[in-house]
Amino acid sequence: MKSHAVRAHRSSEHLTRQDQLAWKIASVAADDVPLEPDVVEMIGNRIIDNAAVAAASLARRPVASARAQARAHAFHPGATVFGLPPTERVSPEWAAWANGVAVRELDFHDTFLAADYSHPGDNIPPILAVAQHCGLSGAALARGLATGYEIQVDLVKGICLHEHKIDHIAHLGPSAAAGIGAALGLPVETIHQAVQQALHVTTTTRQSRKGEISSWKAYAPAFAGKMAVEAVDRAMRGEGAPSPAWEGEDGFIAWLLGGPQAEYAVPLPEKGEAKRAIMDTYTKEHSAEYQSQALIDLARRMGPRIGDLSRVESIVIHTSHHTHHVIGTGANDPQKMDPRASRETLDHSIMYIFAVALEDGGWHHERSYAPERANRPGTVALWRKISTLEDPAWTRRYHSHDPGDKAFGGRVVVALQDGTVIEDEIAVADAHPLGARPFTRPDYVRKFRTLADGIVGQDEQDRFVAAVERLLDLKPEDLAGLTVTADAAGLGAAAACGIFDWKRG
């Protein structure tokens, strides 16, 4: 890996294309290096992971709405939509949209956290949609996915967005565009323009994850994927983009990030170097914000030691700056303590999550968020006794570049009414590669079968898993198999009509 210094430049400095971050990203994308076996295995794992969480979300309103929008854009050859038969095809950007919402709705797929944070599995829907529409092979798809993961992880390592209140999809648009370009085998110049265009149109604020969090939290990465497809299409037609997108005098760094004096260091593979960034990422065992994964595991470990939870006086979670300020009491969001809050808001409240995990000894992607669950008097009482504090040691570990030191957990101090104090800590989730029970292919398949149960038939589940097992050998006509068709009862209906399905009278 080579570290690239990135800063704003005055127009008079004339930054050459070869020195621009977008060109360097495009060069990595166009470098067709062989994929290593463990990377191919992990790509298959994440395709399974995405299908699992998509299946579980098919009947939810945001997913049904996005699917209805996509179905209004039937297209041939087109791409498949989760839940629908593979013969029903829609335009690839709308497939990326519908599938992106389905994958992100439950916030239950893979994650990578560094200078910023991300869900790299969000790259899969747009790259797969283009691969299906354009008749690419499984090997070409895998090349694109390895690239999408590589670029997003590298950007997340080098550039912090959230401190400037920019939503993390600003890294996803460029990574998905690069992945699509790699899958299609496009030249550096074309990918360069697409990456810049995708950055320009996917820069949005973090209000999507603040206050009254709405369904846009699931739609935001789908929007980035849709924009990436359109950006590549424009670039393939010879159209340009705002340039240099990151370094320009009126560009991303100068006005939306650290300003004219800021400098970032973005690591990228050198020419001929394997794309392995997907191996740095990790999935979720629990359907909740990633920083809560380890703390859910700690709660189910501490619950038996605490015993009667009515005896709890207070619970303080000592954790990283990010956890404290994004999903903890440091966010200063009263909605995080409100039993009437939306599922999306509860998902971003470690106080609520830790209380329920203590009471239930675990976490469920539906029952744990149910309104009747959130309004249980005992839960509300315990929830309001929980607070978070930033601990510099956990903040340092959160940002550590050493995988063995990097941590996303915290130390929990429980004070009982009789003066007893119970403490415990956890660094990483049990399912993390360095955790107590790292996820492997059987775990991903089990997660898929658990979440698809009652929604996708057994034969269809078997067919899908078998298709993933043959990923590199899939022919263009086989790529439609990388989706799942739901039983009729497993699909929810869109709650209302919109412009695309408007009916006069």
Describe this protein's structure:
44% of the residues lie in helices and 10% in strands. The chain is an alpha+beta fold. The protein is built from 19 helices and nine strands. Helix 2 (37-57) runs parallel beside helix 18. The strands form three sheets. A four-stranded mixed sheet has the order 7-6-8-9. The longest helix has 21 residues, at 37-57. Strand 8 and strand 9 (421-426) form a beta hairpin. It has two domains: 2-8 and 18-280, Orthogonal Bundle (2-methylcitrate dehydratase PrpD), CATH 1.10.4100; 290-426, 60s Ribosomal Protein L30, Chain: A, CATH 3.30.1330.
Compact description:
With 505 residues, this protein is α+β, with helices and mostly antiparallel strands. Helix content is 44%, strand content 10%.
Number of domains: 2
| Beta-strand percentage range | 5-15%
Rg on CA atoms, Å: 22 Å
What is the succession of H and E elements?
EHHHEHEEHHHHHHEHEHHHHHEHEEHH
Task: Identify low-pLDDT runs.
Answer: none
The end-to-end distance, rounded to whole angstroms, is: 61 Å
Shape: globular
Helix content: 40-55%
Count the DSSP helices: 19
Number of strands: 9
Q: Which architecture of the largest domain would the CATH scheme give at its second level?
A: Orthogonal Bundle
CATH class category label of the largest domain:
Mainly Alpha
Which terms would index this structure?
505 residues; alpha+beta; 2-methylcitrate dehydratase PrpD; 60s Ribosomal Protein L30, Chain: A; two-stranded antiparallel sheet; 9 strands; 10% strand
